[in-house]
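Researcher: Here's the sequence for the chain we discussed earlier.
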Amino acid sequence: MAVIVAALVQAAGTNPVGAALSMSAPAEYRDLIEEAGNTCPEVNPDLLAALLTQESGFNPKARSPVGAQGIAQFMPSTWESHGIDGNGDGKRDVWDPEDAIPSSAKYLCTIAQDVKDVPGNRQHNMLAAYNAGSGAVRKYGGVPPYKETQNYVRAISALASKLTGGGKVTTTAQAATAIHAAQAMLGKPYSWGGGNANGPSKGICCSPNGSSGESIAGFDCSGLALYAYAKAGISLPRTAAAQYAASEPINPGQQRPGDLVFYGSGPASIHHVGIYVGNGWILDAPRPGTQVRYSPMDTMPDLYGVARPKPSNSKEI
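Model: Thanks. This is the structure I predict for it:
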């Protein structure tokens, strides 16, 4: 399976993330940004490129009047606690983009966890915390009422949205919300026909092998995807095949966290769906007798394709 996927990636040719980054990131930083931009669900390469544009305009020697340093504009105290040796040369150098760019992504992911329970848009709260600190975001229950911080969040979000094409498919924030919703269901039992927009539910009878979900409150594969994306404000159809039809196909190798991974021999015969979480893993409800869990992307031999839900029926989140 890995050989097949590798061949498909090679045949796919151009990378839309790379094409988007070419609009804003200097060529020497694109590989760094693409790799670091997949550190956690709340961050993607275009968001990271937008943040570095806002922070320093990709100037690795930038220094602000208040003492922020380097391409990602770390304050010395923040660098001391969160800087990493990104290139493995034995030192952490805030002036070296090979250290500063992955450090920026890792720090974004850390503060995303710090403010994960704050109401509102997860990505906006993360960006606000990067600018004003996690304490301010928790204190105000979201983006704090600081003009500088509000403009900062607005500017980066707008640029990131422009790079990703904005609005036609799931946003990074919606994908992160869906992933977190599915993660909260880890360990819930499989139930044939189980799961809806409100959470686990008793299923129906019967699966192709005769298993009934009538007495089990849980999820089947498409029920989990439906629930997770309902939490992100996106309505999906009930079955895996219908969910594929309602989503935007993604070229092999270009998936990002939150995309749906489908299995079957063709669109009409799709029988399984999982939620991609990165690094070749999905979250899914595999089959009767199992639980919601992490599975490798090649968990089944008939991987058909990857698609990104369309927010055409979505609500504000």
